[in-house]
Specification:
By secondary structure, the protein is mainly α. It is 65% helix and 0% strand. It has a single domain, classed as Dehydroquinate synthase-like, alpha domain (Up-down Bundle), CATH 1.20.1090. Helix 1 crosses helix 3, helix 5 packs antiparallel against helix 7 (146-163) and helix 6 (128-139) packs across helix 7. The chain is globular. It starts with 10 loop residues before the first helix and ends with a helix.
Length: 218
Amino acid sequence: MNPELTYTIPQKQLICGTSDILMHTLERYFTSVKEENLLTDRIAEALMLTVIDATRRALKDQTDYDAMSEIMYAGTISHCGLTELGRCKDFACHKLGHELSGRFDVTHGASLTAVWGAWANYVYRDDIPRFAKFAAKIWGITEGTEEERAKAGIEATIAYFKEIGMPVNFTELGIGVQGEDVLEALADSCTAGGTKVVANFHPIDKQTAIAIYQLANH
């Protein structure tokens, strides 16, 4: 693995790649497993902080060897399952995003950031303390009620994606506002015609998938 080989990749692929690295850990950080697992949490939190910092540095100078090295290392750790130990994958946004990529040929990482905020705002009440912890550990948000902190953490994440040039809704993704028939078709594909439920933090059936797509559909 040689960071110098990453110096000339298109910036779009840089930010889509780092966003996917972040999402692979986010989709393990928010799961149905409620038991405390401090080591896994701390590895996940350190990885996310590192990716956020290194991406900002790389966008200023893509020949920053140390920044690109950190990104490559984080990619290995985020995708190998280490941040899943003691937990389980949720991958709700991956399921929702894959359907956008399949229908509209959008880049994978971009499909994830386009739906993450919609997903988070739809499901955060299932585990407000978890979202509040995320807000504190990743964004330093410690003031307000637990729910206020949870919501602020979601907004800070959305703001970060926008800061680095990633889409946070369908218009920014480049596909425009979609009709209800398209949203239903996407949800239909995501849930195998409404015959299966995906994810586990907040199980997603066809109607839930439609509701999340609706929140991103602007």
